[in-house]
Amino acid sequence: MLKIIIRRCIQMVPTLLVVVTLTFFLTRMLPGDPALAILGPEAEADEIELLRQEMGLDRSLPEQYVSYIADVCKGDFGTSYSYHQPVLSLIISRIPNTLLLTLTALIFSLILGVGAGVLAATRQNTVIDYLISVIALLGVSMPVFWLGLMLILQFSVEMNLLPVMGMGSMEKGLWDVISHMILPGFVLAVIPMGTFARTTRSSMIDVLGSDSIRCLRARGIRESRVIWIHGLKNALPPIVTVFGLQLAGTFAGAIVTEGIFSWPGMGTVINTAINNRDYSLIQGAVLFIAISFVFCNMLVDVCYMLLNPKVDFENGGH
Amino acid sequence: MSEVLLKVENLKTYFYQASGVSKAVDGVSFSLNEGETMGIVGESGSGKSVTSSSIMRLLPARTGRIVDGTILFQDTDIRALNKKEILSFRGNDFAMIFQNPMTSLDPVFKVGRQMTEMILAHRKISKKEAWDIAVDALRQVGIPEPEKRMNAYPHELSGGMCQRVIIAMAVCSNPRLIIADEPTTALDVTVQAQVLELLRELQRKNGTSILLITHNLGVVWEMCDTVMVMYAGKTVEYAACRDLYANPLHPYTWGLLDSMPKLSSDSKKELAAIPGVPPDLRLTGTCCNFYNRCPYCTEQCKTSVPPLRELEPGHFVACHRQSDAERLERGGASDGK
Hints:
CATH topology of the domain at 94-276 in chain A: MetI-like fold
Strand order of the largest sheet of chain A: 1-2
Low-confidence stretches of chain A: none
Distance between the termini of chain B: 39 Å
CATH architecture of the domain at 94-276 in chain A: Orthogonal Bundle
Structural class of chain B: alpha/beta
Largest sheet of chain B: 8 strands, mixed
Strand content of chain B: 15-25%
Low-confidence stretches of chain B: none
CATH class of the domain at 94-276 in chain A: Mainly Alpha
Structural class of chain A: mainly alpha
Distance between the termini of chain A: 16 Å
Helix content of chain A: over 70%
CATH superfamily of the domain at 94-276 in chain A: MetI-like
Number of helices of chain A: 12
Number of strands of chain B: 12
Mean pLDDT of chain A: 85
Helix content of chain B: 25-40%
Oligomer: heterodimer
């Protein structure tokens, strides 16, 4: 197991190199000049030129690229000029906020989504099943930014129940943090919840119709055990795949949601970075998201091994 | 004669589907004595497996329903049991062996865990004791290194080995009835004989009754005391195994026996088959189900359902043309069949 994880980590390197290269060149293709963005439209031409030299922007692209890669290898991701602090420490300081929001949203959506999916599968073609399927479909197809704005309008502006934006602080009590999390958490959870419910439902229906489940019933095993232990464990592989995708997708989705609710996480950092042409910050943040994607994939593979005894990566897969 | 263990009378199990009501089992009667083996034969779709699922009450919840008849297990009316009571019967008094051993075990749990789970579902003992019982059962069914196999996943075992594990599970609870639904169909010919021999040995040792569902008439002849022939959801003939082979009475049974290829027959000759196809189970119930394929068919066969009559002691047959008043001769059809 450990050997496989180490091998996967080594395999991550080329993937990440491609990501670094792509983001480097794509950010350079953004219209606008960072020096101009920093100094403002009234800056003199020689001032701008000086700053460009300072930032190394006067050098050729390949030169900039090589020195950037060298810096990254040393763990130096540059300095963000919009936040005036090193990119790495900025990202590290913001990650916990994003993780708090996304993981809470994901865990809730996983529990509710899988629960609803199992319920729908065991009551296939009943009113409950149809109801869950319709709600799940609505959840999957709802545009996040629209839902966020509508919720703010209803619960914060009209009813004045929940805060409009920000994160709250523990100094004002736990409820302050929770109340700030409810709306963005819900918005982030809606899509994964629908996806989990739909995946679980179809996977469970397949499994519950299988021979092995019928045999378990024939052996006098209680129905609750048949469904929640045997059925669910057999149905898990597709759910885990979706979970991995959603985990990474929710990080990325947080960019929009955090923007709407001004949640001080990675999302707001990336928004600011793009608006200010903050090259090193954009690169650092995108690299971080890429790492989280690759890491989630590895996590999914490891879960596969734990769930399905037939998966054997040592000998070339299945 | 030993005591009657299982008595099924006029069992009717219907499937309610969007396209209509499918009469999968439509009047099946038989009884099985303690320590004996009964075979149920018939072609695919004749209701053999639905009969066994009905006895186990394992029908799909929303579509399948037992609509009539009685299933008596000694003095217990199986149809009257509630969900909890039937659970204590399944895997305890009844054990079931299914057709495909490779898919009969849960692929994501180890063999030992599945065996102990089943034992613990029926007995209040410690996990350790359950484990020992399971190891012992594996040894009884002839699995080498049973302790090691307990830690194997089903995919690490061969088909024959899986079937032995499933039989071992059946042995654990020392059931009084084993329902074996085509236990050898998915296995190698050489392994088939071993599995059947194993079943027979367990029966001798424990006095278990076996309900053997198969379409292999050779297996029936080897294993069974009595045989029931089913066609389109109905019992068409039911007799002691010896009687059925010596003196079959129903034209369908004749067809089945004729369809068996014999080693002595000319290899260039075409295999005998019963012409035609079985009826649509949604449309049966008003005539003899076999009339469209029967060379002895009369007008009466097309308009009324033949009752199951005991023509000779213990030999039942459902055919209008086999009664005390009239007897058909095998091979006496006018079309020269």
